[in-house]
Amino acid sequence: MSDLVRLEKVTVRYGREPVLINVDLIVDEGDFTGVVGPSGSGKTTLLKAIAGTVRPIAGHVLRDRDAAVGYVPQVETVNWYFPITVREAVLMARIGGRVVPWPSRDDVRDAEAVLERLGLGGLAGRHIRELSGGQQQRVFIARALLRRPKLLLLDEPTSGVDVRTRHDVMHLIHELHHDGLAILLTTHDLNGIAAHLPNLICLNREVIATGRPNDVVTPSVLERTYGAPLEVLQHGGMPVVVDRIPGLEPAGAEVIPLREGHHEHPA
Amino acid sequence: MSTLLDPFGYDFFVNALLVATLAGALCGLIGVYVVLRGMSYIGHGLSHAIFGGAVAAYALDVSYYLGAGVWGLVSALLVQQVARRRTIGADAAIGVVTSSSFAVGIVIISVIGTFTQNLEAALFGDVLGVTVPDVVAVGAVTLFAAGVVFFRYRELLFATFDPEVAEVSGVNLAATDTLLALTLSALITVSMNVLGVTLIAAMLVIPAVIGRLLTDSFSRMLAISVGVGTVSGATGVYLSYHLDWPSGPSVVLTAALIFAVAYVFSAARRRAIPEAALDAHAG
Questions:
Q1: What's the domain count of chain B?
Q2: So what's the ipTM on this one?
Q3: Is the CB of residue A132 less than 8 Å away from at least one CB of chain B?
């Protein structure tokens, strides 16, 4: 395995406000990593620093020049009223090596193959707003894949979608990983997404912890990451985070661990 | 029949028709990017800024196209620069830069005491004022703009739709934005004589909005916008001759009439298609 991306002591500021502080990170071929942390913790900025759209004020971002990076932004940032069909959106990725506006036969063939692979065959002529939430996410994954990346960066790929769509999107991302793509995604969903990933980074402007979910999804790490006490249970070999709001628990409620397993309490 | 063909016997009318048709097509082409970038007000602002440049060119006794063109480009680049500050935003940046530029022009007029150019023609457009060099200038800028859109189609589309991912994918955003600013300021400089300072903004916006109303595809929107701009320019100038109206308002009213028809048509089409199908996942 070789490094696709290496961040060394990366610090990023927006104005006077530091967003990332001394972040060290290595993404190898075949990695599948989730980045978790509270809003404003620098998750999106971390992806942007890796993608090269945000310049650090200190430290280095070293990228394998031969490895293309695919970037899938949060769907909330997409202008859904922009006049663009699925085909047009996906073909945007092919910007180099051709001066005429229309796509080459190879471009069209590749785009159709990616759309078919992602279950979007037959939807190429549709406006992006006419698709379901999962299909919309897939369009932007398809656009990233058309660049033939070795590393796929996904910013909140399952935000705002229902459970079934979340499963569909995560299955797709797992398939892409099995096909050899390194994956780095951000998520707010500790139980539905983060706990299922092989590797996690807990971020709050600086890296709080990295490792397997069972190693880093602990009350002490979560409290340092989120600044709030969280309970962690074990279920089916995976950590389950219980978010209890003091004063709002139903009368007589108590946390009962399902099956045997250790039940950690906030530090 | 001869009454209908009468105006084609006059050179000034043929020149005006050519300029208006080309300017309409040009506005339709570039207006798509202006509207989709949420910068509809920039046409209005830049035309005022370029008016300042025209006055400065007159005061310095240099070519109108040189003075106004350079002034417009500098204003457009300043707008971009100021708009990059997130706390300001594009709309406020346009207001600050272009109004200041316009104010400089007014101050120059007051200092030199005279401005012999026809102020009304500059504000509302003047068919009679169109000369062969004007036709050549509009033709050259139209060719340039068509070339920019043709050869930079993908970069412009990507940078307009999703600038952040475009940058990740290798689009040079600064170069793309500068190219668009250059084209826009050239467009306004050469269109001012026929459309007037106050009405260029309308021709940048109306054809593009009509295109948006009628299609969900970017390439079709571009084609419709250019078509509407072309037809509005030609029809507007033709009507202005027969109705004895100023050319600028005549062109803009033609486009506005097409907009009204398109609006009714698209509203009827939306009623025919279940709303749920259009908005199912808009939120």
A1: 1
A2: 0.82
A3: yes
